[in-house]
Design brief:
membrane, two-stranded parallel ribbon, mainly alpha, Arc Repressor Mutant, subunit A, HTH luxR-type domain-containing protein, transmembrane, transmembrane helix, DNA binding
Amino acid sequence: MKSQDKTKQQIIIVDRWRVTAEVWMELAHKWNEKQSVKHVYTLHHMKYLITINPEDNFLIIMDIITDNEKIYEGVSTLEWLCSSKNRERCRVMIFTSITIPYVLKLIVNISPAVLLLKKEPVGRLCNYIDILNESYGGITISPSAMKIISQVQGVTLSPKEHEYLLYRLSGFDVSEVADLMKITYRNSLNYQSRITRRLKEKKSKIYLLQE
């Protein structure tokens, strides 16, 4: 399914565990300069991606840690998903392998901004966020992505708790979220306790609030 539109940009799919910060910056630089990115890194089960709304322009950065399949380079059949009609709609999604098959099936016709599901130190994720912020002028979180987080896991959260969870999953610590949401540090801790309790009750696979 090779695209006939020469103006289309390709998707970049990267295994974060094999990519250094320097490579991230290089990829971001190429994307910003609208260069033609020749390398698409993908795996066989990326077939799930064909359910994403093709009207949006995505830079997709995948974290794949459980598969030993051989990574290959080349123009992927997923190329058609990227459209250059409106580059400002470029979105970044970062998944952990444990959620990839489960979540990707659910995002048909949704335009999520950032969906960060992690099981690694907050500090390392913050470094990625900083790089992406420098490259794309900020990252936003859509209500659609916020809903996916709790619904997928079967956890019911209030709108404010959704907001808190998304900030925490995005790498912000308790005090930073307090500032962002304009609440006290104590209230931020209370949010954390309530959400963590509900996630544990539902045996959620979101690894969240480790400082």
